[in-house]
């Protein structure tokens, strides 16, 4: 009964959003077995059922959120508000949906002049690739886009971003390794204004020794950008590596303390069974997942849609 209903939802989802559905393949497979076992059979609702459900969610890296949701479900079961496993399934989905919120599925746009998007994150998270994908996405929407290579601490970072810039056909402002990132930001802001671009996507350094260093660097970059372009940066987005699951959240905490952030780009969601971490990111950090990386190609970036995400996540047929 409920099993079939879930499978039907999965089929609808598969046709509507096959990429996100495919992207979540590993996470789904991990959840599928557990959810199939729990909701696919005619089981009575009892404490044992709820304990098993908690373990299944924990296995998909829902972390503390999974625990909290289960403790709410237990209390509701205790108050006899939940009587069947089908009701538990519906309530579970509602609770997860509420926790995901309604992140805007588009980029902000300054009323006048270039819109500046600052991209932060640790090395290896997928930051450079995400800058390029975002630039590519905006270009495909017919915006004039420019990249700024402000990670001057690693020569490879500028080189890599330059290769991407050539590949997707957008201009890039860069300098040699070791130059003050703020100097690159200054040049980039000037070039963005001079050439009338719609979006300036700014890559930043990923690893600094202390949080104070990180705060100082991001603070300086922001001041320089703001001086040239009022309101800049209009959005600051944090790139997290989905394959690190709950660890990504610990990593993110450092950045949220260093600078205000408007959202997360969750890279490498295609390569992980830990997609459940998406739910705890919003809850633990108070910032929503806005975009997800679904592969290594320039077009492998999409807006995060909470409903499609849950439809893909909670189905039980792989
Ligand atoms: P950075 O050091 O944070 O700038 O990380 P990179 O952008 O260089 O990415 C690190 C590795 O992750 C590269 O091999 C990328 O191709 C890969 N990568 C980045 N985003 C994704 C994604 O969404 N899916 C997959 N499968 N790989 C990704």
Structure description:
With 318 residues, the protein is α/β, with parallel strands linked by helices. Helix content is 54%, strand content 12%. It is built from 13 helices and eight strands. Strands 3-2-4-1-5-6-7-8 form an eight-stranded mixed beta sheet, sandwiched between helices. Bound molecules: guanosine-5'-diphosphate (GDP). Guanosine-5'-diphosphate binds at residues 121, 123-129, 160, 206, 267-268, 270-271, 293-296, 300.
Number of strands: 8
Helix content: 40-55%
Outline the biggest β-sheet. 8 strands, mixed
Helical run tally: 13
Read across the widest sheet, the strand sequence of neighbours is 3-2-4-1-5-6-7-8
What's the average pLDDT? 87
Taken from the alpha-carbon principal axes, the silhouette is elongated
What compounds are bound to the protein?
guanosine-5'-diphosphate
From the alpha-carbon coordinates, what is the Rg to the nearest angstrom? 21 Å
Q: Structural class of the secondary structure composition?
A: alpha/beta
| Percent range for β-strand residues | 5-15%
User: Termini, distance in Å?
Assistant: 18 Å
H/E order of the elements? Answer: HHHHHHEHEHEHEHEHEHEEH
Poorly predicted regions are: 1-16
Quick synopsis:
This protein has 318 residues and is α/β, with parallel strands linked by helices. The chain is 54% helix and 12% strand. It has helices at 2-16, 18-23, 25-39, 47-59, 63-78, 85-100, 127-140, 155-168, 181-195, 211-228, 246-258, 277-285, 306-314, and strands at residues 115-120, 145-149, 172-173, 199-203, 235-241, 263-267, 289-293, 301-303.
């Amino acid at each position: 009964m409920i099993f079939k209903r879930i499978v039907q939802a999965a089929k609808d989802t598969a046709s509507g959003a096959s990429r996100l559905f495919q992207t979540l393949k590993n996470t789904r497979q991990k959840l599928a077995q557990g959810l199939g076992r729990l909701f696919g059979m005619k089981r009575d609702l009892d404490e044992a059922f709820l304990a098993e459900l908690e373990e299944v969610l924990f296995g998909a890296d829902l972390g503390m959120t999974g625990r909290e949701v289960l403790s709410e479900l237990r209390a509701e079961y205790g108050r006899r508000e939940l009587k069947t496993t089908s009701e538990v399934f519906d309530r579970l989905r509602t609770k997860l949906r509420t926790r995901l919120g309604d992140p805007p599925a588009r980029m902000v746009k300054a009323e006048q002049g270039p819109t500046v998007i600052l991209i932060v994150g640790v090395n290896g998270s997928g930051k450079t690739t995400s800058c390029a994908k975002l630039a590519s996405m905006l270009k495909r929407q017919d915006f004039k886009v420019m990249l700024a290579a402000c990670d001057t601490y690693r020569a490879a970072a500028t080189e890599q971003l330059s290769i991407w810039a050539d590949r997707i056909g957008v201009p890039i402002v860069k300098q040699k390794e070791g130059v003050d990132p703020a100097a690159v930001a200054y040049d980039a802001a000037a070039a963005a204004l001079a050439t009338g671009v719609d979006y300036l996507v700014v890559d930043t350094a990923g690893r600094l020794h202390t949080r104070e260093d990180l705060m100082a660097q991001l603070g300086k970059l922001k001041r320089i950008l703001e001086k040239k372009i009022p309101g800049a940066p209009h959005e600051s987005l944090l790139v997290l590596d989905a394959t690190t699951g709950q660890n990504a959240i610990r990593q993110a905490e450092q950045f949220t303390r260093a600078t205000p952030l408007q959202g997360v780009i969750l890279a490498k969601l295609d390569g992980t069974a830990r997609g459940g971490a998406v739910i705890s990111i919003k809850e633990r950090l108070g910032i929503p997942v806005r975009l997800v990386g679904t592969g290594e190609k320039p077009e492998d970036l999409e807006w995060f849609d909470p409903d499609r995400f849950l439809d893909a996540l909670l189905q039980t047929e792989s």
